Amino acid sequence: MYSKVTIIMLLVVLIFLINSVFTIYSKYEKSREGSDLARQELENLKDRQTTLQNKINSLKQASGVEAEIRDKFAVTKEGEKVIVLVEEKDTNLNPVVKEKSWWQKFLDLWAE
In what helix (H) or strand (E) does residue 2 lie, and over which residues does it extend? Predict the structure, then answer.
């Protein structure tokens, strides 16, 4: 049959080939993940571009400029009034008292 040296050389070559295949596959996986991330980022940027373009289009109109000024600076026209709504504070006058555990009670006996 084949000599031992030939079989050993074929095994060494096979090990190198298997190592090369795994290296190439790991690089393929990394590049695919990078491609997926880039694709997702592109979608996010397209959405942001659409949002900004809509905002620019609204600011080209007088009503859009007025709405933006009202939002940013809280101003009103003459004759208009501003109503400010304030949330009620929780006025619970009965504080919650946490009961001490038996261990804390025991330590309190020795601490006194």
Answer: none
Q: Look at residue 82 in the predicted model and tell me its pLDDT.
A: 76
Output the pTM of the full model: 0.51
d(CA 110, CA 105): 9
**DSSP-assigned letters across all residues of 29-95:** HHHHHHHHHHHHHHHHHHHHHHHHHHHHHHHTSHHHHHHHHHHHH----TT-------PPP----SP
DSSP 3-state assignment of 1? coil
User: Residues in the chain with pLDDT < 70?
Assistant: 90-97, 112
